[in-house]
Amino acid sequence: MHVEFGDYHVGDIEFVAAFDVDGKKVGADIAEAMTASENNTLKLTDVEPTGVEVQRGPTLDGLGEYYRETIVESDIQPVDVAQALRDAKADVLVCYLPVGSQEAVEFYAQAAIDAKVAFVNALPVFIAGTKEWDEKFRAAGVPIVGDDIKSQIGATITHRVMAKLFEDRGVVLDRTYQLNVGGNMDFKNMLERKRLESKKISKTQAVTSNTSAELSDRNVHIGPSDYVEWLDDRKWAFVRLEGRNFGDAPVSLEYKLEVWDSPNSAGVIIDAVRAAKIGLDRGVGGALISASSYFMKSPPEQRGDDAAHEAVEAFIQGNLER
């Protein structure tokens, strides 16, 4: 969302290491791996070979039922991730594991701490928002931005804005839903409902925290709904809000959002990475509240979008520690 984020331009981001468990990606150059196996997003540009080879990370709980049916897991032994990060002289580790990978995310979070590398947690496993992990990152002097990336113009940010608009205009919000379908491996993985608990919590609180309306569980349904293979990396969100305005007259708003999922996320992650790097440069350990509140669905502290934006700008200028 920022071409220049403090002293860092988008073009200053360099890939120095990568980790995966997919047999078609491990051992490949990043330029090749980014279009390998089930990756099915649109092509934005030609990418020359980087000289950086994808290394074998540990699997742990990273592969769910549908992943195991779809990909071939690499038979190469996992590397020492913390040492690989040190060897690569990495500054920031971005975690984009499949939804439901609790053990695997915790492993990479600890590897970042051990390697003294800033951590950006892009998925809904709660790390930055927990006291235990925040204290670990603070003690190590390592910054973290998390949890669960909020896309550039996605279902969450638009739903938040519309729910708040209802409230600001004096409309009582009675009920709402957000249904999401897509055709990438993220959506296929989420067909395994037992991996979805934290995802539903994250998406729901991201919307409801932006309004004072107290809605029962019955009147809020937010989460991934189905996998449609021919959509590829496109995501379609169907959102409906119902309420009452003057005189309790009924009012409803319904909209459909169509996006390419990966670029929509990338537009925010490039800012989160640079925020983490600035935190590292300044020696700030623990959760970066400003960046987390603006860029993530489940930050340690939920803020209104305008307040979160202002805090990020203050952080960039050095007027806010975290």
From TrEMBL:
Top-level taxon in the UniProt lineage: Bacteria
SUPFAM superfamilies: Glyceraldehyde-3-phosphate dehydrogenase-like, C-terminal domain, NAD(P)-binding Rossmann-fold domains
Primary enzyme class: isomerase
All copies of domain Myo-inositol-1-phosphate synthase GAPDH-like, residue ranges: 154-262
Keywords: Isomerase
Keyword Isomerase appears in the UniProt entry: yes
Molecular function (Gene Ontology), one example: inositol-3-phosphate synthase activity
Pfam families with a match to the protein in the record: Inos-1-P_synth
Alphabetized InterPro entries for the sequence: MIPS (IPR052199), Myo-inos-1-P_Synthase (IPR002587), Myo-inos-1-P_Synthase_GAPDH (IPR013021), NAD(P)-bd_dom_sf (IPR036291)
Example of a GO biological process term: inositol biosynthetic process
E.C. number: 5.5.1.4
PANTHER family hit by this protein: INOSITOL-3-PHOSPHATE SYNTHASE (PTHR43125:SF1)
Family: Belongs to the myo-inositol 1-phosphate synthase family.
Name recorded for this polypeptide: Myo-inositol-1-phosphate synthase
